[in-house]
């Protein structure tokens, strides 16, 4: 058909067969105009290209019905440096790694001990150290910020690279603490009469408010990406069943909304964006709206292992699913509307996952698999040591944390 259009156009333009006054060129059946022929030609080209695109996406395991054209273009499903990367690993041994917490901050490897926050380069060489005093140290990063605290410690430290933003000695022992990409900090602690409480600080370390939770116990808390709201996740064990309460407050402490979930606990809950909250229980995964209404839910026959956020707009869940032939591991990628973008299946148990803007690292304790947002396997690494956790060090680099030290993984 393409050849036909070329022939028609060629004859019309070169031999002048489109002259109306030439009797020999007037056929019994009226021929399409040259303008119509060109239009049909381009329509045919579009159909061929779209058919090839759909076939390509299907070959990569991408369900075209679950994603939009905008998703395809924005996420570069047709673009990649290469299909598969060779992944190499270099072990950096550290003494007393079991009593250290490792993180990644601004392309540095961060090691937090009870006595200091150490910034290391990719060769494990110390670049800078900040003295601290922490029991059972904990370190977390988000965006430009790093937060160091400790279980049953009173001190909290917030840094941005090598710059100390603020530090504070609190009047109570810290149970848990969190920081968002805007630098807002939430601290879980005991209030009056040993009641559970959550205190909130802004990015300058200024105290904003404290919420005492009465008979319920806070297990996590987070400030929204915009810094306008605070989410508190707590459990109530006073009755026969264990219930979860999700509470939203303004950044000044005013109540926004709240909801109780019976016979369920959310060990993992995160903001995807200001309008969407991602949560996981042992047997289900959820998307909630800004007023805690259920936007999407998926029941799991196995167990949910881990969740993370990719590119600030995708929720990534790792879970097992029990079927007729045993248990299969899944990494499910879902957008803010609850559309399932990709589902990567793996025949191994998943310990946890980590995501950056380009890849998802899937840790099975002995292997790390790197997949992209389309659910395509882009590289893998097998370790001689048991891997506890994986964190991204850069776009194509990651950190595998073991009891012997850390392994720097590079996708070549």
Question: Would you mind describing this structure in some detail?
Answer:
It holds the Pfam family DUF5711. Keywords: Membrane, Transmembrane, Transmembrane helix. With 412 residues, the protein is mainly beta. The protein has a domain of 58 residues. Helices cover 11% and strands 49% of the residues. The chain is built from 3 helices and 32 strands. The protein has a 4-stranded antiparallel beta sheet, with no helix packed on it. A 4-stranded antiparallel beta sheet has the order 2-3-4-5, with no helix packed on it. It has a 4-stranded antiparallel beta sheet with strand order 6-7-8-9, with no helix packed on it. A hairpin with a 4-residue loop joins strand 16 and strand 17. Helix 1 runs antiparallel to helix 2. The N terminus is likely disordered.
